[in-house]
Design goal:
- With about 325 residues, this protein is of the alpha/beta class.
- It has two domains: about 120 residues, ornithine cyclodeaminase, domain 1 (2-Layer Sandwich), CATH 3.30.1780.10; about 180 residues, Rossmann fold (3-Layer(aba) Sandwich).
- It has eleven helices and 15 strands.
- About 50% of the residues are buried.
């Protein structure tokens, strides 16, 4: 029987430390040809959008997809998880928290390979729910001593800083401007829904690593051309997905600053096929779009832990299914 896992079940078994490990394993499987990922597809209608991200990780016998609707300001995330070996439906998983953790963990993995080993200071632009796991992931892979945060909403910014300081046990302080949040930082995170750049390349110090995690649509852009001109090493999570939704990069490609075919993928860096940081003064950039592979490889581990812990609600589907050839 399949499991229905709700947000509370996922929170009980999913940690950032484990998610970082699982994503590294998933990226290695992808680089080795043992995992599959298709770019996100969207169905639009006047009231909203349906998003789908299909993927498979054969090393953990998992195939499935994350799907979500965005209608009138409400988003509902769901993972459908199947066994790759026999097609059995394993779980239906509410995936808001799962998605936030895996998005943060992807930036954490990139930070592990691209940031300086001695990186201590973080500057953030954005203070929404996704920003929490971004900061938590970076703090899990580098000995962060201080974070500075700017967002347009002052009240949200102040609350975010208080809560994350308590959660992480380090100073997290509000900044007066985006520039103040970025200057003289070792790691910079952008996690916004901005349609115009919020990060200027003029603010960056040599040796900075950037996680740009908010622009997963051609309508969004967080970083400017000056940033891309200063970057020495740019890595994406998916070369196939980037032309479809990397708003940060689209204009630069059209102006001849970048070539889609030349962008290295994070999986190749993790697997050692492509070098990560080469020297302390390089400026590095991870352009995060969010992959179905990340959802599926994490969802399989969440399912296994939930099953072992007796969590979730069992349901029976396909009880009358008879083997036959698909049409």
């Amino acid at each position: 029987m399949a499991l229905i896992l709700r947000e509370a079940d996922v929170r009980r078994v999913l940690t950032m430390a484990d998610c970082l490990t699982w994503l590294e394993e998933g990226f290695r499987a992808y680089a080795a040809g043992r995992a599959r990922n298709l770019p996100r597809r969207r169905v639009r209608w006047p009231e909203g959008i349906l998003h789908t991200l299909p993927a498979a990780d054969l090393t953990v016998d998992a195939v499935g997809l994350k799907t979500y609707t965005s209608v009138r300001g409400t988003t509902r995330f769901l993972v459908l998880l199947y066994s790759a070996s026999n097609g059995e439906l394993l779980a239906l998983i509410e995936a808001d928290y799962l998605g936030a953790v895996r998005t943060g963990a992807a930036s954490g993995v990139a930070t592990r390979y691209l940031a300086r080993d001695d990186a201590r200071r973080v500057g953030m632009i954005g203070a929404g729910s996704q920003a929490r796991t971004q900061l938590a992931a970076v703090a899990a892979v580098r000995p962060i001593e201080r974070a500075v945060v700017w967002s347009r909403d002052a009240a949200r910014r102040e609350r975010f800083c208080r809560e994350m300081a308590a959660e992480l046990g380090l100073p997290v302080e509000p900044a007066a401007s985006a520039e103040a949040a970025v200057r003289e930082q070792d790691i910079v995170i952008t996690i916004t829904t901005a349609r115009q750049p919020v990060l200027s390349g003029e603010w960056l110090s040599p040796g900075t690593h950037i996680n740009a995690a908010g622009s997963n649509s051609l309508l969004r852009q967080e970083i400017d051309d000056a940033t891309l001109r200063r970057v020495d090493r740019l890595v994406v999570d998916s070369r196939a997905q980037a032309p479809l939704e990397a708003g940060d990069l689209q204009g630069a490609v059209e102006r001849g600053l970048l070539d889609w075919d030349q962008l290295p993928e994070l999986a190749d860096v993790v697997a050692g096929r492509v070098p990560g940081r080469q020297n302390p003064t390089e400026i590095t950039l991870f352009e995060s779009l969010g992959l179905g592979l990340e959802d599926i490889t994490v969802a399989k581990r969440v399912y296994e832990r939930a099953r072992a812990a007796g969590l979730g609600e069992e349901i029976t589907l396909f009880a009358e299914l008879q083997p036959r050839q698909p049409r």
